[in-house]
C-alpha cells in the first residue's frame, strides 16, 4: 500500500549513459571469477557473527573492499571531518544520498555500521541471511505506521555508541539528480544526542566525469545492474566525509544541514524535469 510519504524517483533507463567504455573480455571474466569466489565464501562472512566484535567488523570491512575490487570499482576518499568534533563514546548516524546497491559496499568499506534497509531485503535468498547477520534495521516504506519503530531502534543503537547508516532520500536516484533528505530518521540522532556524519558519494570515470552507469533505478533488476557495472572498463567512486554535525533539537533543520554537506561533492546538475524530458525523448524515438 502506497502513501504520500513514500519516496519515489523519476530516474530510469533514460538516465544511463548511451555508450559507456567497456572492459575487455579477459578483465570481465576475471571479475566474474572473483565475485563468484566471494559468493562461495559468504558462509565465512555469515559465520563471523560468532567472532569477537573487532574481528567481525574487520571481516565485514574487508569483504566490502574485496567486492568493490571484484566489480572494478576504485574507491577515493576525501576526509574533511576535521578535529572540531570527535565521536569519542558517542554514536554516529551516517547519512548519504542513494544511487546504487553499491553504496552499501562503499560505506561498508569505510567502517563497520548497522544499516537501515528496506524490510523486504530480509526475504531475499542468501542476502536476507547476510542482512540479518549484519543487524540491519528494517524499514517498510509502504507502512508508515512502522517508521517510529525503526527510528526508536536506530536511536537505541546510537545511544549504545554504535554507527548507523541511513539513506534519507528513501529511494535511489541516478547520481545527476537527487531527492531531498527526509527528516524522519534524523530524529534518532536528536533523541540519542548522537553526532551525524554526512557523506557524499559520486560515481565517476577515471578522469572525474560523472558516470551514471552504477545507478540502480527504475525497473532494473539486480542481475542486469551487476552485468552493466562489471562490464565497465573502470568505475571510480569519490567519497566525501563532510564535517561531523551536532544533532541540535530540530530534525528538519538537521536534515537540511546534512543534505547541503553531502551535496558538496556531487554538484547535481540534472533537474527532475530534465529526467522526464529524457525519458519522453527515448519513448518517442522507440516508437
From TrEMBL:
Pfam families: Acyltransferase. InterPro entries: Plipid/glycerol_acylTrfase (IPR002123). Keywords: Acyltransferase, Lipid biosynthesis, Lipid metabolism, Membrane, Transferase, Transmembrane, Transmembrane helix. Pathway: Lipid metabolism. One of its GO terms (molecular function) is 1-acylglycerol-3-phosphate O-acyltransferase activity. SMART domains: PlsC. CDD domains: LPLAT_AGPAT-like (cd07989). One of its GO terms (biological process) is phosphatidic acid biosynthetic process. The chain crosses the membrane at residues 28-51. Residues 92-204 form the Phospholipid/glycerol acyltransferase domain. PANTHER family: 1-ACYL-SN-GLYCEROL-3-PHOSPHATE ACYLTRANSFERASE, 1-ACYL-SN-GLYCEROL-3-PHOSPHATE ACYLTRANSFERASE-RELATED. This is 1-acyl-sn-glycerol-3-phosphate acyltransferases. It comes from Rhodococcus maanshanensis.
Amino acid at each position: 500500500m502506497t502513501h504520500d510519504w513514500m519516496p519515489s524517483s523519476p530516474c530510469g533507463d533514460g538516465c544511463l549513459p548511451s555508450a559507456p567504455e567497456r572492459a575487455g573480455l579477459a578483465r570481465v571474466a576475471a571479475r566474474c571469477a572473483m565475485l563468484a569466489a566471494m559468493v562461495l565464501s559468504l558462509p565465512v562472512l555469515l559465520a563471523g557473527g560468532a567472532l569477537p566484535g573487532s574481528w567481525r567488523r574487520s571481516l565485514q570491512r574487508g569483504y566490502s573492499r574485496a567486492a568493490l575490487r571484484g566489480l572494478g570499482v576504485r574507491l577515493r576518499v576525501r576526509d574533511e571531518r576535521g578535529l572540531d568534533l570527535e565521536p569519542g563514546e558517542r554514536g554516529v548516524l551516517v547519512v548519504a544520498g542513494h544511487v546504487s546497491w553499491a553504496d552499501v559496499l562503499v560505506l561498508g568499506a569505510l567502517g563497520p555500521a548497522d544499516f537501515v534497509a528496506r524490510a523486504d531485503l530480509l526475504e531475499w535468498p542468501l542476502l536476507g541471511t547476510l542482512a540479518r547477520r549484519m543487524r540491519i534495521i528494517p524499514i517498510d516504506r509502504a507502512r508508515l505506521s512502522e517508521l517510529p519503530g525503526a527510528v526508536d531502534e536506530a536511536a537505541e543503537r546510537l545511544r549504545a555508541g554504535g554507527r548507523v547508516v541511513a539513506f534519507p532520500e528513501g529511494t535511489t536516484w541516478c547520481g545527476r539528480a537527487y531527492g531531498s533528505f527526509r527528516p524522519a530518521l534524523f530524529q534518532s540522532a536528536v533523541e540519542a544526542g548522537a553526532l551525524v556524519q554526512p557523506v557524499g558519494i559520486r560515481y565517476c570515470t577515471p578522469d572525474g566525469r560523472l558516470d551514471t552507469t552504477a545507478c540502480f533505478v527504475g525497473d532494473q533488476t539486480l542481475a542486469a545492474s551487476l552485468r552493466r557495472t562489471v562490464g565497465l572498463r573502470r568505475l571510480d567512486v569519490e567519497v566525501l566525509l563532510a564535517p561531523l554535525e551536532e544533532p541540535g533539537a530540530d530534525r528538519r533543520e538537521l536534515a537540511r544541514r546534512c543534505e547541503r554537506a553531502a551535496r558538496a561533492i556531487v554538484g547535481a546538475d540534472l533537474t527532475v524535469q530534465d529526467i522526464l524530458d529524457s525519458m519522453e525523448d527515448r519513448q518517442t524515438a522507440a516508437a
